[in-house]
Amino acid sequence: MAVCIAVIAKENYPLYIRNVPTQNELKFHYTVHTSLDVVEEKISAVGKSLADQRELYLGLLYPTEDYKVYGYVTNSKVKFVIVVDSSNTSLRDNEIRSMFRKLHNSFTDVMCNPFHNPGDQIQSKAFDGIVSGMMMQTG
Amino acid sequence: MAQCVQSVQEFVQDSFVPMVAVLCSEEAERVTRKNNLSFAELLRPFCRLTSEGHIRDPNNQVLVVKNLRICVNNIVTTPNTATAALSPAQKRFLNEVVLSCQPQESAVGSVIATGEYNLNFSATTPWFEAYRENFLQSMPASDHEFLNHYLACLLVVSSTEAVPVEQFIKLSQEQHRIQHSGEYTSPKWFIPNTLKYYVLLHDMGEGDEQRADTVYEDMKQRYGSQGCYLLKINSRTLSTEKDEQIPDPWSQYLHRNSLHSQVRCVALSMRSQGSWSGSGTVGLNYIADTVSNNLDGHPLQLDSGSSSASKKATRESDNTSGGTGSHGTCLSLNDHDHIRQFIQEFTSRGLLSHIEKNIRQLNDQLVSRKGLSRSLFTATKKWFGGGKVPEKSISEPKSTFGLLYPPEAPELQIRKMADLCFLVQHYELAYNCYHTAKKDFLSDQAMLYAAGALEMAAVAAFLQAGAPRPYPAHYMDTAIQTYRDVCKNMVLAERCALLSAEILKSQGKYSEAAALLIKMTSEDSDLRSALLLEQAAHCFINMKNPMIRKFAFHMILSGHRFSKAGQKRHALRCYCQAMQVYKDRGWSLAEDHINFTIGRQSFTLRQPENAVTAFRQILTNDSRQTATQQAAFLREYLFVHKVKHSQLSLPQLPLPCIHSSVTRIYFGHERCLAEGEKQAATHVSLDQEYDQDLAAMWCNLEEQLVASANRGSIPVNFQPTQYCLNSQTDNQRHPLAVVEEPIIVEVTFRNPLKVPLALSNLSLLWKFTADSSPNDRTTPQSTVEPITNEETLATGARLRLLPHRTGQLNIVGVVYSLSETQQTIDLMVCGKQDLNIQGLRLNQTKEDKMSVKHGPDRRLDPIITPSMPLMEVFFLQFPTALLCGEIRKAYVEFCNVSSVALCGLRVVSTHPDFFTFGSQATTPVTPLTPTSAENCSAYKTLATPPQLDSVASEVLVSAEVFSQFSSVMDIPIEGGTLLPGESTQLPLWLRGPDQEGVHEINFLFYYESTEKRNKISHRVLRHTVFICASRSLSVQASASRSSVPPHHSTKEKGSSGTLVFIDVENINTSESGVREFHIIQVSSSSQHWLFVSVLSSLPDCKLGSRERAKLCFRATRCKPPRATSDTVKKYTFADLNLGNERIISSSTPCGDFFFRCRRTPALSRTSSSTKSQGTASSENKADDITNIVKKCNELDLNIIVIWKAYVVEDNKQLILEGQLHVALQSLGKEATSLAPKEEAQEMVLLKFKSELPVPVPPPSAELSQLIKTNLHYPEIYTHPFGHNSLCLVPVTLSLSNCSMALVDVLIDLQHKSNSPESEVHHSFTWVGQTQYKLQLKPQEVLALTLRACFLQAGVYNLNTPRILAKPTEQMSLSETSQQTASPALIIINKA
């Protein structure tokens, strides 16, 4: 399903990046990093009008030749980015949205861990599992 | 898109300018060549009109033409087809242009601060502008547009020519031939009847001016005054006006070309410059180009070539290329003005009017044609097109992107008119025409034409000043798309995109511009892609909300393409700019990638410094790269380093990481602990972990030593000796090291990589400031073993320095060779790393707390002091396990290994009762060598026959003999000093601790140099042993007053006998093979008491496991101390041996340990007793009843039980000896050899109670023991009752005062006890005085003779007297009834 899932901290450094074809990690890093510009643009655009009831899901950030990049921003400005293969047409917006929600829930769980230091890299088996699940679904 | 020098309007205008061709006669060419310029070049700087031109449009309205520029070029007739892509040569040229235009190092980049980013980059990109300019200039002329077709032709003839007019005719014919013969496709002409402008060139230097004037007059006649011009140049002679500074306007126009030619020279080293410059000329090029056909007619050398007639000018061009430095050397400023005037004249009179005429003509044609019906119009089209409409979709590839119109096609006429209008800045008309043309072309499906029209329509719309309509951006997009996708003409698409992007940029539509530029990147040209991507990146950053990351990403993409295009410098610049965004933000993978690329590019650009820095970054980061990647990085780094630093000074290496704060430094030799039999003192070593508590303990011990060495006071400047410094020790002061003693530095490395690193040739880097001794040339040397550092393990390397001189040493860093693994030794880099240790953070003052300040850490800056003695201590036969109380003899060897004598040897220990060196006075003569003493008892013994009723042998010993009551012991070495190299061996007795378990026993040896004036006042040596003590015997003792007067020793007064019961139990539980214990001797030691005899004991006193024995002894008070030894406390030792040999308990091991063991409780007791004394004295000290009572019951008897244990070990029987001590404090109380701890606790409690003095009512039970009574009488008395009915028996009542006070005693014989049993025998009565009142002096024994009268035979209890006593001085107190002894029975027999 997803080929790359990333969690970016408020300060725009990566908290977590996983991608499925592990050999091309660098490319995904670049893709995710570049997408932050769009995320910021979207946040600033939305932030002015509807500050309080902002939709966390940002939708498609931008398409590239091979991938579609979707974004999601939590209220604490932590960004989730999901990169999906362009050829995968089965994914609807709703599915992406639910993936993000799932990711957000799992992320919240990670943050609730009293032993987790906010701002550290996410090292959680449960979170890993959720992410792997999202990536595996393609089969 | 980056900022440009030109404004958009200027740029777009200058992209499309009227083209003017030049045909020169050879002679004219020669004249211009004097200035190192061709004629076209000569004109170039003046091609922009400074004044306004005027033109009338078809409606006769005057238009102002501002700032018009014309382009003058030599005719090049190379068959240059308008290809869809740039030729390789063009590409190469553009590459060179970009390569030559590098950003200045000094150029201040603009700083953009957005949010968290501060980017520093150059806002302008001159290389891009240069590329764009050259690209647009190199655009080949194509059929679908006329903008870069020649509008006019300058025919230039020199006045020196024999017949200039003939030359003009010749040139005119030549031009006509080129345009109309059909031989040449290359220079395209705008309009069939090209404007010919005749220029007579007059050289002021050589020609006859008058002649020129006449020729000019003639020309005016012939061509009209508006069609010709006389240009006078070269009025300046080289020789005369050398000093005059003439501006050189050509340089900025020509330097690129000259550079170009230079580059070409290099590229074509096989060819001569001449043949090359000829290759661009008419007719010659075919042969020349057979050598390399990729050199076909470079469109960019339009002006570097010579005119069509300059076949012979090749020679001269040789010269020009030789002296490219200066241009226009023969031109004065006047000449410059002449040229400017000429251009002005030509443009306004000739060119503009020519254009005006043509516009009008075309307009008329079109207007007349408009009258024709549309159908006819299409019909003509059909004729001309030749049935192109149906076929266009079928076979020919050309038809896919449109059809070809014949030059006279009406659609092209519109286009032509549009182009003309455009060139003279009549943009409104141009737009209308383009728009019309576009419709026509589109309806004909002539896509190329349509795209061209669209493009120009958009540009014209943009340039229209009033802007009645918005800029049609979609025209551009359609045009680009058509060019690219339909026509496959990337060159045109690129031009269109460049224009469009520039226009969008000017309108602030950066994201559209970026998208456009990114779309234009393709695989076919790396250079173009790189440049466009870079511009796109600039677009992103120039947006209202700068998209920094997109900027960075596209910079990286651009850098990648640049590097593919061979533009290393540009690539490096791009990566560096992108780096600013990625740096230190956690995107380590990207960061690594960029750093790696930067490193590589820098390396290839011969900037090893930067390469090294970049690679350092990769390696110092805690990288998330895979091991193989890391290995690659490392290899690259090493390689770069090797190349860079082959001869330079040592570089700083990034790997491995040094934990400088955990660096440890050790002063002294590395020691081997065990040396055969000998066991060296453990001292301090780097292998030990630092322990705060231990350090404090050692410091405390050292304080004690120093205090004892300085007669009880600790010097103010005392600092504990530190042999091993680490992060926890106090490193504020410079440590002191000694000459010729090594300094060992332990540096801890950590390898952050996943690949192993090999370090070799590790050594220390130090700085040394010698103490003013200039002649001494010896310096410290460092010697180090190579080490290999495996994986991520943190490893400490120990490096040794051996100072040979005194002074100040600073250890600065480490030097080592870093290589990848052992096998690739050749790739090894030698470098250094500094050791910078940050001191502890200061937290004393408020200032310190507010800011972050760090104290100094001088760990690595030792001061080398002159040599000091160095002592080694070895232990021989030192046990590791002992039974509790076991006595063992060991030997200790002191060895002075330095060259300086030492003295003042002392030792202190945490367990002073554990060992003794013996006292000199009582040291038994034992063999000094340990070997011969193996089976010898540790005790000093005397063989005596066993006696059951043994009488104790007593020895009086002063405690002073065993002196050293402080825990510090002087070590009795001969002479007090140990000379260099000398060693001495001393016996040492050890006694197992009383507590079972493992005991850590610390020794601290102290010694000083015999020379005093040293910085180091003393040295210490530590030793730690662990002794495992296992249980042996438990001794319990209690004492009670004997009621029976001593009948054996008559000499005794008999009042103060005390019985001592000793319970001994074998509590050894271990299977260590202790078979049995023998109690061989019991000794007493006291100031007041001594054992007199054994009352009962086992025959041989053997105790098996868990067996128990009870021994009973009698003790008596010693003789009162003689007056002479009043002050000295003397202890009386009384030995009662149960075996057949007597151990002299007062001599060395036994007595020593006795006193040592006593000391521990004694010390604490004195402290508490001083307190209680203080309170007592303030109150009523003599009257204190408790005191008296206590005194009375005080015993203070110490018992030493000496035993032997038979142990079987390895089938050998060993005899172990030992002694246990029991201190009996008072009568009745039980004391034990075990659990001294509880006792200590009790004392503490007592101490606290004494704080609040509660007047304790004297316990009657204790007061009742003031007086001890004994009745002496015959046990059996036979009386003849028949003879005398009254039987009188004399009874002696002896009263002994146990207390130390006067006691009043009241004896009442008549007292009748109330007890019923006593009433049974009241058949006897005391006769004589029945009440006595006496006063007994302290310790006095008084005998009273009483008489008892019996009436009949029987058994009587004589113990009926009631004795009341009270201390005399206690007035308030009533007498207390004294405890009576057991019934004293008397048997009266009837005789």
TrEMBL record, chain A:
GO cellular component terms attached to this protein's record: perinuclear region of cytoplasm
Compartment list: Cytoplasm, Perinuclear region
Family statement drawn from the similarity comment of this UniProt entry: Belongs to the TRAPP small subunits family. Sedlin subfamily.
Protein's UniProt name: Trafficking protein particle complex subunit 2-like protein
Signal peptide as annotated in the record: none
InterPro entries in alphabetical order: Longin-like_dom_sf, Sedlin, TRAPPC2L
Keywords tagged on the record: ER-Golgi transport, Transport
UniProtKB/TrEMBL annotation, chain B:
Residues annotated as domain TPPC8 third Ig-like: 1024-1222
Region (Disordered): 297-329
A family per Pfam: Ig_TPPC8_3rd
GO cellular component: TRAPPIII protein complex
All residue ranges annotated as the TPPC8 second Ig-like domain in the record: 884-1021
Domain TPPC8 C-terminal Ig-like: 1266-1366
Sequence ranges assigned to domain TPPC8 first Ig-like in this UniProt record: 687-883
InterPro entries for the chain: Ig_TPPC8_1st, Ig_TPPC8_2nd, Ig_TPPC8_3rd, Ig_TPPC8_C, TPR-like_helical_dom_sf, TRAPP_III_complex_Trs85
Domain of life: Eukaryota
Protein's recorded name: Trafficking protein particle complex subunit 8
Organism in which the protein naturally occurs: Cynoglossus semilaevis (Tongue sole)
